[in-house]
Amino acid sequence: MRRQLLLWAAIASLLVAAAPVPARPAPVRFAWFSYEGHDATSARPRPGEYANPILPGFYPDPSVIRVGADYYLVNSTFSYFPGLPVFHSRDLVHWTQIANAIDRPGQIDLTARKLSEGLFAPSLHHANGRFYIVNTCVECGGTFVLTARDPAGPWSDPVWVRDVGGIDPSLFTDADGSTWLVNNDAPVEAPRYDGHRAIWIRRFDLATLKTRGPARMIVDGGIDLAARPVWVEGPHLFRHDGRYYLIAAEGGTSERHSETVYRADRPDGPFTPFPHAILTQRDLPAGRADPITSAGHAQFVDTPVGDWWAVFLATRPYTGDLYNTGRETFLRRVTWRDGWPIVTDPGEVIPYAARRPALPATPSGSFPLAGNFTLRDAFARPTLARYWLMVRTPKTRWWHAGAGGLALDARAEPIGGLGQPSFVARRQQHLDATASTEVRADLDRVGAKAGLVAYQNEAHYYFVGLVNDGGRRLVRVERRSGKGDPVDGVVLASRALPVAAAPVRLRIVARGGLYAFDYAVGGGGWTRLLNGADGTILSTAKGGGFVGTTIGMYAYAP
């Protein structure tokens, strides 16, 4: 019996060894990608004015510093890679992306993170010739610090600060050389209600990147604990005219969002609050035209001549609290009154255009970041432009740019999963936007897909593209509008393709809360596959979390 079992095992191993190995699917090739955005509110400002937002699309939680005549800004990216885009400007209006501080897979592991986990609000700092970003990786390590001699990089690997909890850390170096770290965390006592948080302070050593001494709670709940304020966060500490000022967001990062301020004679308090928000749009009529909402999470910066400005996040809904462009970066002048900084008075509207800072104009960068524009990328260089994003940290090199466009390996990582799909995307920066591409794909495997995806998160997306459906070559629109839908989405429209070898052009057209999906074969004209699709499923409100919609190229093979 033993000999028979050994014989059968040997035969089985020979059969397995002789079995053909399934051929790896040929890469899917995208010849180019085009993005066009045209919003009525983004019309060219008049001479002497600038337009808001200064960074439209998913650029939330801005942090800004000045070093001499240069300004630097960074935004959060959550579970996108590369992460933490770094920008440079000399006029606070026109920005050029000079780096992604997280640009190496070994720096941060975002494996299996939900899209709105990962890298929360970062904060920039400069002292003694060195640049710092202090940040929190939610569900992936906690508080850490990156350093660089040049803000264009390279940025260091993270140095973890394990004894600092919560989120939104920020650094301040005083005139005597002492450095302080402020952050959001739980209050001393058990929270009295949902959203009851606190701001803490402790000393920090820039040489060792470690805390020094005990932490102290300096804000409990917000400016008035009796009113049960929620989600005090995003603190920044600075000094002005001999006093110390602490600014912090309050109210949650939606329509009740605001910015508040406190002042003290010492960096660690005690702090006295200003009695009401110094920046908000929550006190304005809900039905106003072209609203800017959810303003808060600010940081202040001065100019060489003593003017003060605030960068902050806000949103542009197309109706109610629905917006697909995410939380964006805005600019507004700060006015000092009786020793307090004011960004908006009660009931004051944040304008889409205002008088620009008294600073020399900065030339635009190599690709447009604001206003109405058209951008076409033929992927001629082997490295991707800095605005391209992937979901979570890549473990292998599955994308290849160069002559012939962008090639994506079709892998068994679905866009609706928590893996790392073959998906390269850019932000949707306008309410009215059009994204298109040309794709060639063999799709030899049943179930294989290649095309464009409009993506809010793993549970909320649209796909338009080529599909191998039981051996039939189709062009199809699929949607996932919640966790109740299949990971592969629900089919909304489908059509057989007449020519297998011809390239296919694909197009997504966004008009506020309505999306349309088109295709064209070879050199033929566009055919509408689906019109009037519900784009509100791509909104931050319906998707949940903190990100905006991205649109890009996707390849999949089971």
Low-confidence spans:
1-21
Shape: globular
Largest sheet: 8 strands, antiparallel
Give me the number of helical elements.
Answer: 2
- Alpha-beta classification: mainly beta
**What distance separates the N and C termini?**
40 Å
Using the CA coordinates, give the radius of gyration: 25 Å
> Average pLDDT, to the nearest integer?
95
List keywords for this structure.
46% strand, 6-stranded antiparallel β-sheet, disordered N terminus, 8-stranded antiparallel β-sheet, globular, mainly beta, single chain, 558 residues
Could you walk me through the main structural features you see in this protein, from its secondary elements to its overall organization?
It is a single chain. With 558 residues, the chain is mainly beta. It is built from two helices and 40 strands. Strands 1, 27, 29, 30, 32, 37, 38 and 39 form an eight-stranded antiparallel sheet that branches. A hairpin with a 2-residue loop joins strand 37 and strand 38. It starts with a helix and ends with a strand. Residues 1-21 have low confidence and may be disordered.
